Amino acid sequence: MFLRLHRGGTPVTVSIDGRAVEAQAGDSVAAALLAAGVSTFRRTAKSGAARGAYCGMGVCFECLVTVDGIPNQQACLIPVAAGMAIITGQAVPDPVTRRAP
Description:
Shape: globular
Helix content: under 10%
Radius of gyration: 13 Å
CATH class: Alpha Beta
Strand content: 25-35%
Structural class: mainly beta
Mean pLDDT: 87
CATH topology: Ubiquitin-like (UB roll)
Oligomer: single chain
Number of strands: 8
Low-confidence stretches: none
CATH superfamily: 2Fe-2S iron-sulphur cluster binding domain, sarcosine oxidase, alpha subunit, N-terminal domain
CATH architecture: Roll
Order of helices and strands: EEHEEEEEE
Strand order of the largest sheet: 2-1-7-5-6
């Protein structure tokens, strides 16, 4: 389980897969997901393998989620905002290559 080392950020409410969850201002979307007990951020298009936070710094693209209707966003790079809608699941294939990231 993911635990914060400190508390004290301003609480903000976000939606994770339709469920209201409290996060802290300054959290990344990935940190908010992990703190809410979500470890599978998406599944691969080909095999359905679970993917989640891996590198935590925007290099690996394993943490892709949909944020406020925009697919394939890197959860580790986006700060949470009050009212944000986060949807986990399968990455959306690129319209040019027709392959999932």
